Amino acid sequence: MSITTSGSGAAGLVEKSDAQGNGVAAWSEFTAAGSIVEAVTWTASGAFSSVVQLSGLGQSEFLPDLAVNETGTAVVVWPQATTFGGSSYQILSATRPAGGSWSAATAVSPVIPQGNSPRVALDGSGNATVVWEQNATVNAATRPAGGAWGSPTTIESASLVGPDSAVSDATGNVTAAWAVSDPTNGSVSVHAATRPVGSTWGAPASLGTCASTCAPHLAASRDGSIAVVGWLPSGPSVNAAVRLSLGTWSSSSVGASNANLTNLVAGNHAFASAVWPVGIGVKYHVALDQSDYR
């Protein structure tokens, strides 16, 4: 079935489901008045809701991110250009309780210069965390279930070159990962930081070097037993890092030189899998390789 109108310019689709198989999708769509953010929900049996516009009219609002927890609570976040030409932005959010209706758009951040790439994480109780980039810094804000967004916190100030990502386990331990560039020599590395439930963000850890176009993947198990970061390496030695529970990170190689990870999952009981494509010597033909952590 078609959710949006053909030729509407829909882009940046994200989709998640809850433990019962009910789903949520969000995307940005170009209209005559500007770019807007929309969403749709469906039940495990395949019954779709009407499309709902989450953002305002006539605003430049685009590239949403989405989190859905086990019970079906959903949070969508996106950047909004508040001035013509995009010289200032604001991070916005909308929330939908399981089986309920979407809230009005709510400000996560103040109006900021160059705010982009918001990523949202959601724990089992509905507490939310948003991480975003702003003027070469990584910033985060949290919101308790049913509450208001707190003041933003700067996790790291660095020369960012890649998008950030954020995940939460069911109890509320949040992990974020991003790529930074060393201004002295141009090398790129992956950094990660964790905010244990009820605490503050820890110092960023450097996980290893990566290619100049590095975009780290991040996954965490819902039981909190494992978190994994994977990325396109600058060499054959490192392209993944694992942290058991809230311990220290351990980096290792999981594939061939310059293996570009396309999917990364982390399951309960400290299990994780990474998948990447590999050429098989036939034009346009590739195989998928997999590495498991047990």
Give an overview of the whole structure.
The protein is mostly beta strands and 294 residues long. The protein has two domains: 1-157, Neuraminidase (6 Propeller); 159-192 and 208-294, no CATH class. 0% of the residues lie in helices and 50% in strands. It has strands spanning 11-17, 23-31, 34-42, 52-53, 60-61, 65-68, 74-81, 89-96, 106-107, 115-122, 128-134, 137-143, 153-157, 159-160, 165-168, 174-181, 188-195, 205-210, 217-220, 226-230, 240-244, 249-252, 263-267, 271-279, 286-293. Strands 5, 6, 7, 8 and 9 form a five-stranded antiparallel sheet that branches. Strands 14, 15, 16, 17 and 18 form a five-stranded antiparallel sheet that branches. Strand 2 (23-31) and strand 3 form a beta hairpin. It starts with 10 loop residues before the first strand and ends with a strand.
Low-confidence stretches: none
- Measured between the Cα atoms of the first and last residue, the distance is 39 Å
Structural domains: how many: 2
Rg of Cα set: 19 Å
CATH architecture of the largest domain: 6 Propeller
- What order do the SSEs take from the amino end to the carboxyl end, as H and E? EEEEEEEEEEEEEEEEEEEEEEEEE
Strand content: over 45%
Q: What general form does the structure show?
A: globular
Number of strands: 25
